[in-house]
Write a structure and sequence with these properties.
This is Thioredoxin. Keywords: Signal. By secondary structure, the chain is of the alpha+beta class. The chain has a domain of 133 residues: Glutaredoxin (3-Layer(aba) Sandwich), CATH 3.40.30.10. Helices cover 43% and strands 16% of the residues. The chain contains 8 helices and 8 strands; from the N terminus they run αββαβααβββαβαβαα. A hairpin with a 5-residue loop joins β1 and β2.
Amino acid sequence: MITSIRNVTFALAAFLAVAMPAVASELGDDGLHKEDWFALTFRDMADDIRAAKADNKRLAIIFEQRGCIYCAAMHEKLLSDPEVRDYIKANFKVVQYNMFGDEEVTDLDGEVLTEKKAARKWGYVFTPTIVFLPDEVPAGKTVAEAAVATMPGAFGKWTFLDMFRWVREKGYEKDEHFQIYHARHIKELRAAGKLDAE
C-alpha cells in the first residue's frame, strides 16, 4: 500500500513537472516580470556598455510594459528555457526597461530622460522590444542610432536564441544577413534530428 502511494505520488509529481510550464520570473511592483539574473544598473547606457564588456558580455536592453501578454510569454516560454536562459546569461548583460516608466536614463549622447521619453526618442513602440548595443561606446550617437540589432516582439525559441547568437558572433558585421544565418541554423538542427518545426 505504501509502495503504491509512493508510486502514485511520484507519477503525479512527474506529470506536473512536465505539464506545468516552468515560470522562473516573478511579477514586480511595476507589473513587469523579473528575472533574478537581469542586471540592476543606474541606466547610464555608456556605463552599461563598458560594464558588459568588462564581463566579456554584450549589452541588451528589453522594453516591456504592464499587462503585456507577449512579454509574459517571453518570460514563461523563452527565458525559462534552460538552453535560452543559460546562453543569454553567459553572454549578455540584460537590463529591463519599462515602456511607460519614470526611471531616469542617460542616453549615449548624454541626454538624461525618463524610460518612457527614451522609448519615444528611440522609436520603440512594441513590447517586448530587445535592443542590442555595440561592444564599444560610440561617440555622439543615441541608443537607436548605435543599436546593432533590434528584435521587436517575442518569437519562437530558435529565432529568439539565434538573434542573441548572431549578435554575439557579430553577424551584423558580416555578409550573412540574420535571416540567412537563422535559416542555415534551422536546416542544421533538422538535419541533426533536433527539430521538427520552429
